[in-house]
Amino acid sequence: MARIVVSELMSIDGVTEAPGGEPGYRHTNWVGKRHEAGMIEYKFQEVLDHEALLIGRVTYESFASAWPTYKGPFADRMNGMAKYVVSSTLKNPAWNNTTVLQGDPIAAIRKLKWETKGDIVVGGSRRLVNALKQHDLVDEYRLMVFPVILGSGAQLFDRTEDATDLKLVDTRAFGNGAVVLTYHVERVS
């Protein structure tokens, strides 16, 4: 059975909105302004290490409008890997190797998790991440935290009364001050 790995770009104050230049947000492209080669290598290795990409429609539209225009090994992997989209409105995805999950999305994701041989990475897709968390489908969180306080914007996690216990399993620092914090979800047996 596959593990679901949530990999997010976030500010110190938990904002994940418009890291790469998406329109409509005051601080758009806040990650692009702070990129460095080591981070790109890390993200490339991350997609190499995963069998499939699971995303929501908004992230799909952002990725599908950009990745097919890029060249090189990273773009080849992103464009070639299996992609699964949770959406009730997307009908005919144009991006290579994309499947829109049909029916009940949580049931479809459970089935995907059961049938996929390698791990599944989730990027962006804040609403999807919160639904996965709510249904205890996330196995690992990789949070690339950038040294910036944005003060506004959509934060990754919805407010909830439920707690999720995590175990820190890895850290990695980059020269620009960003760090990746990797946590496994601790489940009580």
Can you walk through the features of this model?
It is a single chain. The protein is an alpha/beta fold and 189 residues long. It contains five helices and eight strands; from the N terminus they run βαβααββαβαβββ. The protein has helices at 37-48, 57-66, 73-80, 105-115, 126-134; strands spanning 4-11, 52-56, 82-86, 98-100, 120-123, 140-146, 166-173, 179-185. An eight-stranded mixed sheet has the order 4-3-2-5-1-6-8-7. A hairpin with a 5-residue loop joins strand 7 (166-173) and strand 8. The longest helix has 12 residues, at 37-48. The two termini are 18 Å apart.
Give me some keywords for this one.
189 residues; alpha/beta; eight-stranded mixed sheet; 8 strands
Fold blueprint:
Elements: E1 4-11, H1 37-48, E2 52-56, H2 57-66, H3 73-80, E3 82-86, E4 98-100, H4 105-115, E5 120-123, H5 126-134, E6 140-146, E7 166-173, E8 179-185
